[in-house]
Amino acid sequence: MAWHYLMDMDGVLVHEEHMIPGADTFIAELTDIGTPYMVLTNNSIRTPRDLRARLLSSGLDIPEDRIWTSALATAKFLADQRPGGSAYVVGESGLTTALHDAGYVMTESDPDYVVLGETRTYSFEAITTAIRLIERGSRFIATNPDATGPSKEGSLPATGAVAALIREATGRNPYYVGKPNSLMMRSALRALGAHSESTLMIGDRMDTDIVCGLEAGLKTILVLTGISTPATVDHFPYRPTAILDSVADLVGRTDDPFA
Predict the structure, then answer these.
(1) Known active-site residue 10
(2) In this model, does residue 132 exceed pLDDT 90?
């Protein structure tokens, strides 16, 4: 079987700004033998072009069209649900660019949706505006449920934490598009032109990457270079298809990863 690969970015290919050893060799092998792949991230801050530059600085050469973000998945979902709609966005360029490209108008005047993404500059004013618009009837969408994000100084509040604040203030639950929603996987599959039966997902988290791949009908590989550990795997009622130390273990057998 000719496999297609979906893979998480942070914890699988990089840690912060540093490449995980062997990730460059793994990506180079996929490229050399013409294996289709897509790198996924729940982070909605950066555009694929920005992420490509970030990965290049880490030593990984990944084209823009091989990067799929929760912002792109959210824009695709909204364009399918309500073509040419409008949104009030709390987020950064990765999200606003994706929505603009999908034909959406950004407005504070009775938008169809309030769309919450990740930003390093959450403001009380923007959150208050989001709350009032939702109270008036705008539908509540969030790019992903991650409560915290990493930084060199420690955890940062992320989309899920701010979504919880807005939910408590409005009594309205957001619809999360990113992982672990299998919609993220299915939109990435469509972007890659792949089928679930011949695609595998590589991730470092049981509660997002692996369950998301499982629910989308994919084979899954957990790598131990990020969040989950062999001890925490047993806490979950499901298991990955395989567990490897890192993507470096796939070098030389990307055509038959479960051999």
Answers:
(1) yes
(2) yes
